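4.2 Preliminary Data

To establish feasibility before requesting continued support, the project team ran the inverse folding procedure on a target of 313 residues. The structure was first converted into the token representation described in Section 3, and no sequence information of any kind was made available to the design step. The complete token record follows.
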């Protein structure tokens, strides 16, 4: 019988949907069940519970029947963003009693924005996964690093174009948390055209990424997001804030340089200017970025790692 895995209950940045589809290609009986689909990825779920946005009892009236239906169909529950289908104090005793395995897959804000003592619930699951080495310093337990994977067959590199005014694309999921105003201010001091992509479907956003000469991700966090991965897959040079120690750990783990220009809100203009002025440097970084995601973020490589984690549960 094929391994049966339920990924739930959110699909932030499409991570869950990408993982589920990759697992299916390997013969795993995998499904994605979400409380609610994301506005910009409305079709990415096998089962949208359409859980009410508020009202504890109303929410439980939806999630308990769903869990009861999923339990006999599932060997492993893969939970994202520190969330479970039913309250944690009941979720894990039931899983243990029925000999089901579980995994917490932390994505960033679910651990970064909370004190460590509030994260000890992670130990209730049989395994823990984070998306980057930068995330390890926020958790009070050991976890494996599983970088977000993308299906590279969906991303053909776009040949760079040499033009008079460089086009910069910035696509924040949250304007304030990603430092959008600092991006706008820095670009005002440079001979560039800035496009802020926000509030559109992922497919539409990707088409706009393809038109970029330079991509700026975020300026206030310790690591890049899926936006940077997609941009590098398209052959675009990326500028974002990165934790120096995490860069070193990533390079040591994967044997490849992280070809991202590190910048903060205080030096973004200074870091952008050489890229704006040099087509050859943009071209070099774009090629290096594509090679990097092929090595570190290819969903097939990540699926190998994920299946190994499952086998050890």
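Position-by-position output of the design step:
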């Amino acid at each position: 019988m094929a391994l049966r895995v339920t990924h739930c209950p959110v699909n932030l940045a499409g991570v869950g949907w990408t993982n589920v589809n990759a697992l299916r290609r390997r013969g795993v009986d995998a499904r994605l069940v979400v409380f609610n689909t994301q506005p910009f990825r409305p079709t990415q779920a096998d089962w949208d519970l359409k859980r009410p946005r508020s009202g504890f009892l109303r929410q439980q009236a939806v999630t308990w029947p769903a869990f009861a239906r999923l339990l006999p169909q599932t060997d492993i529950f893969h939970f994202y963003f520190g969330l479970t289908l039913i309250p944690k104090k009941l979720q894990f005793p039931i899983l243990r009693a029925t000999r089901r395995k579980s995994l917490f897959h932390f994505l960033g804000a679910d651990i970064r924005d909370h004190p460590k003592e509030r994260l000890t619930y992670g130990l209730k699951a049989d395994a823990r996964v984070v998306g980057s080495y930068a995330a390890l310093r926020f958790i009070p337990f050991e976890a494996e690093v599983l970088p977000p994977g993308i299906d590279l067959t969906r991303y053909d590199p776009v040949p760079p174009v040499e033009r008079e005014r460089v086009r910069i694309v910035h696509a924040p999921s949250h304007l304030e948390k990603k430092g959008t105003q600092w991006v706008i201010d820095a670009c005002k001091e440079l001979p560039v055209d800035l496009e802020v992509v926000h509030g559109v479907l992922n497919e539409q956003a990707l088409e706009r990424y393809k038109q970029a000469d330079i991509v700026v991700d975020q300026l206030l966090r310790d690591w890049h997001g899926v936006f940077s991965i997609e941009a590098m897959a398209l052959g675009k040079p990326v500028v974002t804030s990165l934790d120096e120690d995490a860069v070193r750990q990533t390079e040591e783990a994967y044997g490849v340089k992280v070809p991202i220009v590190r910048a903060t809100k205080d030096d973004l203009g200074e870091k952008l200017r050489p890229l704006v002025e040099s087509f050859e440097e943009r071209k070099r970084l774009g090629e290096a970025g594509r090679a990097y995601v092929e090595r570190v973020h290819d969903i097939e490589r990540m699926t190998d790692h994920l299946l190994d984690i499952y086998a050890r549960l």
